[in-house]
Amino acid sequence: MPLDPLKNIRVILCETQHPGNIGSAARAMKTMGLSELYLVKPHLFPDKQADWMATNAVDVLRNARVCADLDTALSGVVLAAACTARSRDIAVPAVSAREAAAQLVAAARTQPVALVFGNEVSGLSTEQVKRCQMVTMIPADASHNSLNLAAAVQVYAYECRMHATDATVPNKARELASHEALEGFYEHLEQELIATGFLSTKVPQRLMQRLRRLFSRTQLDAEEVRILRGIVRTLREPKNRN
Amino acid sequence: MPLDPLKNIRVILCETQHPGNIGSAARAMKTMGLSELYLVKPHLFPDKQADWMATNAVDVLRNARVCADLDTALSGVVLAAACTARSRDIAVPAVSAREAAAQLVAAARTQPVALVFGNEVSGLSTEQVKRCQMVTMIPADASHNSLNLAAAVQVYAYECRMHATDATVPNKARELASHEALEGFYEHLEQELIATGFLSTKVPQRLMQRLRRLFSRTQLDAEEVRILRGIVRTLREPKNRN
Questions:
Q1: Looking at CA atoms only, how far is residue A72 from chain B in angstroms?
Q2: Which residue of B has its CA nearest to A173?
Q3: What is the number of CB-based contacts under 8 A between chain A and chain B?
Q4: A79 three-state secondary structure
Q5: d(CA A175, nearest CA chain B) in Å
């Protein structure tokens, strides 16, 4: 059982016309941690234009498997999603890209699954859709629902990654200010505002409450509290007057 | 107040190098219902390559506004998100594309907001990021986090659309089978399975329970129940033997 379900998700491109789209799709996959590319009867592959559009994802192209038909590409797959932009006559309700990705990732934790894309002009044939267990669509504008092939791959790969990972953004850990540091700051500020007559000694609480809310929303870190206290101190006792 | 927040979301592309990327971005926008494109110092625009890549979204290009600087493009905007692939020194925590889209759409219900993208090589400058109220990233693979510009626009536009609409897929309404129809089918099936000896009359329940679960998962519609009953009936009493 692989630890990373993304490695168990195949992207199968059927009869792609433009090699540049194969390259763009490979790049889209790699940005999201996918690497298993299958090409069913590509019009032109390998090709310089594909390499060019793949940029740093040329390795995905090098490892791509070219297949004579969809059945070969689906070999070993337990759940295949037909990615389409059209409602179809067949009686399979389409699920959204988000829902499809959830189901695929769940299955991919133990067994291979696939996202299947048709060619740029006509999409998937009814025969190809029949080979899949699920039909899925990206919710799009009704009057202009035709995403570029690589753009569609990007959205599905992104949704798979969002489901497979905790999908957090790598932020540097911030050393948030402690309760004591914050209270020290508020006390300092209040004293100075009273001392300067900005606050009345009788009813300082209302404005202090607003200031607390303001700073609370920003989640001050320790260094920021030191900076703010330095500003208050310096405004009260300018250094250049010493 | 516009009814559609997507019309209040500007996509601002800064110093784009390749006109083809402007066209691809326009197409990505239009598929998701966005139309407000602003170009800050584009390298080459208008351009045939942009028109070519835009396909049916040439109208978005025609209505695009070319601006001399980012401040001009941000005029009137109440919330701008800097879309970046890099962690930055500046002390602004990045939010995910999904979270950024949620905040942008919420604000866009009443006032203009913006997604701001840098150029293909160096992204947004620190000066440009400073002009924005939010920094956002698409959660991507650590070793290969550089999405194509139009692919990034596609993901953000998609997330905005998912937040702005109910994001459902247009499925034909299915007339699901009624309780009575389902029970009639199960009863019919059980009788025939007992009659044929497939089920023992003593303990038929276990297998029937599995069959119920199987059919329940598929959410049979009324027509499908009629078809299934027809199959059972025909298997028992073949028409061509009459």
A1: 27
A2: B93
A3: 125
A4: strand
A5: 12
The answer to whether domain B5-164 and domain B179-241 are alike in fold is no
Give me the helix-helix angle, A179-195 and A205-218, nearest 10°: 140
Stretch 169-208 of chain A: residues touching chain B, C-beta under 8 Å:
169-172, 174
Angle between helix A149-164 and helix B149-164 axes, rounded to 10 deg: 70
The pLDDT, as a whole number, for residue B28 is 97
pLDDT for B88 equals 59
3-state secondary structure B176-209: ECCHHHHHHHHHHHHHHHHHCCCCCCCCCHHHHH
* Residues B129 and B82: beta-carbon distance below 8 Å: yes
Residue to substitute from B144, B159, B218, interface A, most A β-carbons within 10 A = B144
Instruction: Show the beta-strand stretches assigned E in chain A.
Output: 9-14, 36-40, 65-67, 79-83, 94-96, 113-117, 134-137
Kindly list the domain boundaries of chain B, sorted by start residue. Answer: 5-164, 179-241
| Distance (Å) from the alpha carbon of B148 to chain A's nearest alpha carbon | 8
B-contacting residues of A 205-224, CB under 8 Å? 221, 224
Q: What angle do CA A142, A21, A128 make, to 5 degrees?
A: 65
* CATH 3.40.1080.10 is right for the domain spanning B5-164: no
Q: Cβ of A98 and B167 within 8 Å? A: yes
Chain A hits for B144, Cβ within 8 Å: 30-31, 56-57
Do the Cβ atoms of A138 and B167 come closer than 8 Å? no
Q: Does domain B179-241 have CATH number 1.10.8.590?
A: yes
Per-residue pLDDT tens digits for B40-80: 999 999 999 999 999 999 999 999 999 999 999 999 888 89
Per DSSP, the residues of A194-242 read HHTTSS-SSS-HHHHHHHHHHHHHHT-BHHHHHHHHHHHHHHHS-GGG-
Determine, for residues A31 and B154 on separate chains, whether the beta-carbon distance falls below 8 Å.
Answer: no
